[in-house]
Specification:
The complex is a heterodimer. By secondary structure, chain A is an alpha+beta fold. In chain A, 32% of the residues lie in helices and 13% in strands. Chain A has seven helices and 13 strands. The longest helix of chain A is centred in the N-terminal third of the chain and has 31 residues. Chain A is extended and about 100 Å long. By secondary structure, chain B is mostly helical. The relative contact order of chain B is 0.08. Chain B is globular. Classes of the chains: A alpha+beta, B mainly alpha. The interface between A and B is large, with 128 and 145 residues.
């Protein structure tokens, strides 16, 4: 045994190692017929692969996707058993093209290439003692010549310079986004587009809502006016800011609303919130206070609202209190009233930041 | 090596360098410029051992290559932009809707590009394969002790690869900007924002302001196609280099020791097997991409922060974080005008990282407890490391529980259960079930060890029931074959570390103080109950006993097997008939 064995566990007892068993020949090793058969099989797999590649090309050009052309015309989509024929055929033929190459090569390895096991010695992962000493000596000599130990002034200022060089690398990233200072937060996280008199509109059609449109038990997804794409541009009202693109999505992520009408006697008003409802109609933020999913599942009998992401459940009859799940805070309530022309509008913005918590949030 | 018993096509004479063969000329030309022959001469015929479980990492490697190839195809058409456009493409149900260019181009890839949907699905399936095979490969390495010295660094590299693979998967999943992945991104943003102290700042930097903004998709795209793949490639390269340098571990067996590696040469056998396997993985993912729908984004529709679908589920590898997030009680602290969201950052950020760190640090923990500084190249059967095996299986049970918790809404609907009850159950179960599993698996492993010893000393149960003249029944035990017996005993004896001992049997100096005491206790717990392999004396005694028993049977006239049992497949049966007239 080599000196390597000092560093290896002994596993020889209690039974001595009988040594590698003798090689058992395969049929292909001793029978020329079997050998030629295996050869033909391998070649057959490669031929099949070629056929599949050709079929891929045929499928590519012959099966129609049913694409809508520039001039508005389209061919019918070819299908196999209701599946898009083109994708299915391309996937299967490409898959089999590759698969047959793989099967052929592995078959070749298993049947025809030598299966005599070879033994190879291992070597310790560590370098030899001499190599290690030489390396250490070289390292020592290099450091010595650099004088890094003898010249603390140079060394320490270099370390300082390297540390300071990190500053541009980090500071240079500041424009990734606005720095979330308190003034920035006040204009962003802590504010929505709701203000006194903003109309509450349906989230699909963008039409304003009258209290009498809602029966007891009705639940509506609503938005502030201006956040819903109007199909008819002439319906746009003056004085309303119609948002698009990123600002629209950002505001939808904060201002979305749930409207629910219940029996006024069922409502337990929060302190100071007695006038926030109108004839049993309550308005709550649709954005979950847990991690911000839009809440959408309603239990009509209990006035409970469930978030489909993590199942936080809020009681809309009781100031949006959390009754179940991982959310920690009640849903923010939007104070609402009826405008002079009879539509539901906001009394003001939300009185607290909506959506998930953050470190600087003052949750008094 | 004998050339008599291999295929004749391999040639009967050893290869000898010929003069100026074509191949030789090419090699010469290249070597004069690159000097690779020195490295190649050792590695071309490098030996790799064979076992089915060594293929798991290969699946991961090849599915990553498939991801690179299909990913390049997808970049030709995907537009990583959040600019709003009106969709006017082929898919009727969404025509006229406003959506981001990213989503519109995902629809175009799915409906207007021949093979586009197939490749998109292939890319997604290959990503599933990539992460799943890495996890299973990691389990194999853990259960067999393949992470022990000198392979600890490769273990950590592998762990980082899994982490990067998951992040890469999540970033790619988010790119189409559909309703489902947008919801996932919203949850991720909520988690970032809930990070203590820096959360709000980080979220604003990531999203260029408030969620969702219009920069996250291009930024994720850059990370998904450049930054993360580059890191993954670099780590894979390091992983493979170390694998070649250390040489692969092998199972113990006759002729397979700590000092050698027995198997087939890289050229040609592994070149063919591994190379061929790439085509199999490629082919399998192409067939899956063609036949099995995954992530049908056109059904979810474009992302809208005010919309969500019921039954929102992330891809499976995010399931445990999702599960923890769902069952966490709603704890939040408000002090001095700040908010600490325990309910979000504990399950969402702290717990997954802590779990990964625990698993990655296991080799170092185990090495500290055993004090073992030797190299290990022979794999251990899971039963021979009962505490380690039990630890992983209990983690697997935790993983499974959190998976169920992550789909608690789906489970509630499927099994008609109350969702709240599932959640309450899971809150307790994740603390109760894994320890129970741990105890059970540990005892199970120890029983299996005992069973191995019984086979070694008393032989195997032949299934032949003998009746003695007195009328008693007994099962005949027969000795197991010597190669199997050697394989079963080819393992080390565990040594329990005794604190205070100045030097243990492995020549490791003992420390002192509290840590030393803890090490002793851990060692006693981890190895104290293990069943050690029999000693030479015990084996000999067992063999004698068996021989004696057989002799005794012969004396009693039981020298033939019971009627009918001569056909048990272990004997020559030519000319045998059933005795008697039945």
């Amino acid at each position: 045994m080599s000196d390597h064995s000092d560093n290896l566990p002994a596993v020889q007892e209690p039974i001595a190692d009988p040594g590698l068993p003798a090689h058992t020949p395969r049929p292909t090793d001793i029978d020329p017929k079997a050998e030629r058969r295996a050869e033909r099989q391998v070649a057959f797999f490669f031929l099949l692969s070629m056929v599949m590649a050709v079929l891929f090309v045929v499928a590519y050009f012959s099966l129609d996707l049913g694409k809508l052309e520039e001039d508005g015309t389209r061919e019918a989509t070819d299908t196999f058993w209701g599946l898009g024929a083109s994708h299915v055929a391309l996937g299967v033929t490409l898959g089999l093209t590759m698969m047959f190459i793989g099967i052929g090569v592995i078959h070749w390895a298993r049947k025809l290439m030598s299966d005599v096991e070879i033994s190879e010695q291992r070597h310790p992962a560590a370098s030899s003692e001499e190599d290690r000493e030489e390396t250490l000596a070289a390292l020592q000599a290099g450091l010595e010549e650099s004088g890094i130990a003898r010249r603390p002034l140079v060394r320490n200022t270099l370390l300082g310079a390297l540390a300071f060089a990190g500053l541009p690398l980090i500071v240079g990233l500041t424009d990734l986004g606005p720095v979330a200072t308190s003034s920035v937060r006040r204009k962003t996280l802590e504010k929505t587009v709701w203000k006194e008199g903003t109309r509450i509109v349906r989230d699909v059609t963008g039409t304003p809502i009258r209290p009498e449109d809602l029966e007891v038990g009705d639940l509506l997804n609503a938005q502030p006016e201006g956040l819903v794409h109007l199909h008819d541009a002439s319906l746009k009202r003056e004085g309303v800011d119609y948002l698009e693109g990123a600002p629209l999505h950002i505001e939808k992520g904060k201002a979305s609303l749930i409207l629910l009408r219940m029996e006024p006697k069922d409502i337990t008003h929060g302190k100071g919130r007695e006038n926030w409802t109108h004839q049993g109609i309550v308005a709550y933020s649709k954005i979950c206070t847990h991690v911000g999913c839009p809440i959408s599942l309603n239990e009509q009998q209990t006035h409970h609202l469930l978030c489909p992401c993590h199942q936080s459940t809020f009681d809309l009859a009781d100031s949006g209190r959390v009754v179940f799940g991982p959310a920690a805070r009640a849903l923010p309530q939007l104070p609402i009233k009826v405008s002079e022309d009879g539509y539901l509008v906001a009394q003001s913005d939300f009185t607290e930041p909506v959506g998930p918590s953050y470190w600087e949030r003052d949750s008094k | 090596m004998s050339t008599e018993t291999v295929a004749t096509t391999n040639g009967k004479t050893a290869a000898a360098p010929k003069k100026a063969s074509k191949g030789g000329k090419v090699v010469g030309w290249a070597d004069e410029r690159l000097g690779l022959a020195t490295a190649a001469k050792k590695n071309l015929r490098k030996v790799f051992p064979d076992h089915w479980s060594f293929m798991l990492g290969e699946i991961a490697l090849w599915s990553f290559v498939v991801l690179l190839i299909t990913g390049v195809f997808l970049t030709f058409w995907f537009k990583p932009s959040m600019a709003e456009v009106q969709y006017m493409g082929t898919y009727d149900q969404l025509r006229g809707m406003y959506m981001s260019e990213a989503f519109a181009s995902s629809l175009d890839i799915s409906f207007d590009i021949r093979g586009g949907l197939m490749v998109r699905q292939m890319h997604h399936w290959a990503a599933m394969l990539f992460i799943a095979s890495m996890l299973v490969h990691m389990m194999r390495v853990f259960l067999t002790g393949a992470f022990r010295k000198p392979r600890e660094i490769n273990w950590v590299i592998g762990g980082l690869l899994i982490l990067l693979g998951i992040v890469e998967g999540f970033s790619g999943y988010s790119l189409p900007d559909d309703l489902l992945s947008g919801t996932g991104l919203r949850i991720a943003q909520g988690m970032v924002q809930a990070t203590p102290v820096v959360g709000t700042y980080m979220s604003f930097f990531m999203f260029g302001g408030e969620f969702p903004g219009d920069v996250i998709i291009p930024r994720l795209y850059m990370a998904h196609i450049l930054l993360l793949p580059a890191l993954i490639l670099a780590l894979i390269a390091a992983h493979m280099l170390l694998l070649v340098y250390h040489k692969h571990t092998q199972w113990p067996g006759p002729g397979r020791t700590e000092e050698n590696v027995v198997g087939f040469p890289m050229l040609p056998v592994y070149m063919a097997k591994a190379g061929g396997f790439f085509f199999i993985v490629f082919g399998a993912s192409a067939i899956m991409g063609g036949l099995m729908t995954i992530n049908p984004v056109w059904k979810y529709g474009p992302y809208d922060p005010s919309k969500v679908t019921a039954g929102s589920q992330p891809d499976w590898y995010m399931g445990i974080a999702e599960g923890m997030l769902r069952i966490m009680p709603g704890w939040e602290s408000h002090i001095f005008g700040i908010t600490i969201s325990w309910n979000i950052f504990l399950p969402g950020m702290f717990a997954p990282i802590a779990l990964l760190a625990l698993v990655l640090s296991w080799p170092f923990l185990e090495a500290w407890v055993t004090g073992d500084k030797r190299e290990h190249h022979l794999l251990q059967r899971p039963r021979n490391a009962p505490t380690r095996t039990a630890f992983l299986v209990s983690l697997m049970s935790l993983y499974g529980l959190l998976w169920i918790a992550g789909g608690n809404d789906v489970v509630a609907v499927l099994f008609h259960l109350n969702l709240n009850h599932i959640t309450y159950f899971m809150r307790a179960a994740i603390f109760i079930i894994p320890p129970l599993v741990f105890i059970l698996v540990r005892r199970w492993c120890i029983s299996l060890q005992r069973h191995d010893n019984e086979m070694l000393t008393h032989g195997y149960e032949s299934g032949i029931i003998m009746r003695s003249p007195e009328g008693g029944y007994s099962e005949r035990h027969l000795p197991i074959d010597p190669e199997r017996a050697y394989t079963l005993t080819a393992r080390e004896r565990d040594e329990v570390y005794v604190p205070g001992a100045s030097e243990d049997a492995n020549g490791v100096e003992g420390g002192a103080g509290k840590m030393d005491g803890l090490r002793g206790k851990l060692s006693a717990y981890m190895f104290g109950d293990n069943v050690q392999k029999p000693t030479t004396a015990e084996i000999e005694e067992g063999a004698e006993h068996l021989a004696h028993e057989l002799e005794h049977e012969h004396e009693a006239g039981l020298d033939h097997s019971a009627d009918g049992h001569q056909f048990d497949g272990r004997h020559e049966v030519e000319g045998e008939t059933l005795r008697g007239d039945h």
